[in-house]
Amino acid sequence: MKIKRYVVTHLREAMPLIRKELGQDAVILNTKKVKVGGFFGFFQKQRLEVLAALDEEKVAKEETHEFATLLQSEKRRREEAPKVVQEKPKQTVEEPSKVTPPIQPAQQEEVDVIGELRSMKEIMMQMMENERLPKFLKPVNTYLEEQEYTNSIRSSIMAELLIRAKSMPGYTKEDTFDWMRQEFSKRLNNYPNIENTNKRIRCFVGPTGVGKTTTIAKLAGDILLKERKSVGLITSDTYRIAAVDQLRTYADILGIPLEVVQSPDELEQALTNLASCDIILMDTAGRNYQQYKYINQLEHLLVDKEISINLILSLTHRYADMKSITDNFQPLGVTEVMMTKMDETTVRGPIFNLMEDYKLPVTVVTTGQNVPDDMVKTSPEFLLDLVMGEKVYV
């Protein structure tokens, strides 16, 4: 049993402290008035001493019982649910009936497994909403919530952790975070390969202010200095006066060619001029992603080109905005995603959210303004370290 003492002015001041430190299941053992402070017994102030306690063993048993009850009630609900019997359609001469093949045992088993998983996630959502998770699983759930993982990912991870907890009595908080890493490692195996080889021509798209031009300069420097390949730059961003000058400055520093285009014909000529380059990186205008006219212009510019489309997003955006951006750029055939401004936020959940929801690899993250240094090409280990909150890019 854990017992804590609180000295407060009023009982109402103690309640949030007790809930925060001991949880919703704590009980107040005793209250009494005490005098504190003063000088040689004078000028003392009257306060209220509150003793609160948490019976951890009892709470653990109640949580186990509650989870078992939830599972049992879900099983009973399924068994008692009325089975819908479909009436056979009347056969006519003009239209013979279509015979539905019976479900094979293997298919039925798969359906049952999917149903069980859905039920498990529903139960986990109930437990998370009611704060009824076992003690050592609560920090993991809180961490995933603070990192802004979607409810789908969070409930799935927590369901797996709860299963492990049931089979391993005496587990610790450290065990639960190790399990979390292992579960994310499994999920990475279901995502597209983040080390896919890009096509020779790479086009970069995205909304305003995400740092496309700077990211392209970092990639160009990396390809030139580390991969030892020749690089050419193309920009179609003629809407901003400083955009071309910014990219030209980077091109001059790196000693690589730059072509400026405004139409498909000019793009063809630019590609011809850069035919000797191993890799060609193409910048586009950072325009409002909600302007569908801009998306259509890009589609027209890139039609029939063997180009990989790299969507650049900022980790400082809300995930709801990232989804809207991705949805609007999907018609271009986005092949991978790069995340910028990771140094400006501590939230990492959107990286996995995007890979989970769109099955697109996140291949690069940027961590500052320095060209070409503040950029990391991702790997499974790097992403797993991000899940655990480790600043591995420093």
Topology (elements, then pairings):
Blueprint: E1 2-8, H1 11-22, E2 27-36, E3 45-54, H2 56-80, H3 105-129, H4 138-146, H5 151-167, H6 173-188, E4 201-205, H7 212-225, E5 231-235, H8 241-254, E6 258-260, H9 264-273, E7 279-283, H10 292-302, E8 307-314, H11 319-329, E9 334-340, H12 349-358, E10 362-366, E11 375-377, H13 380-387
Parallel strand pairs: 4-7, 4-8, 5-6, 5-7, 8-9, 9-10
Antiparallel strand pairs: 1-3, 2-3, 10-11
Helix pairs in contact: 2-3, 3-5, 5-6, 7-8
Would you mind describing this structure in some detail?
The chain contains 13 helices and 11 strands. About 3% of the residues have low confidence. The strands form 2 sheets. The chain has an 8-stranded mixed sheet, with helices on both faces. It has a 3-stranded antiparallel sheet with strand order 1-3-2, with helices on one face. It has 394 residues and is an alpha/beta fold.
Q: What attributes does this structure have?
A:
46% helix; alpha/beta; 3-stranded antiparallel β-sheet; 11 strands; 8-stranded mixed β-sheet; 394 residues
Give the end-to-end Cα distance, rounded to a whole number of Å: 42 Å
Largest sheet: 8 strands, mixed
Q: Can you give the helix content as a percent range?
A: 40-55%
Number of E-state strands:
11
H and E order: EHEEHHHHHEHEHEHEHEHEHEEH
Question: Stretches where pLDDT falls below 50 for ≥5 residues?
Answer: 84-88, 94-100
Discrete helix count: 13
Query: Rg to the nearest angstrom?
Result: 29 Å
Q: Give the amount of beta strand, in percent.
A: 15-25%
Helical/strand content category: alpha/beta
- Mean pLDDT, to the nearest integer, reads 78
Q: Looking at the structure, what is the overall shape?
A: elongated
Q: Which sequence of strands runs across the widest sheet?
A: 6-5-7-4-8-9-10-11
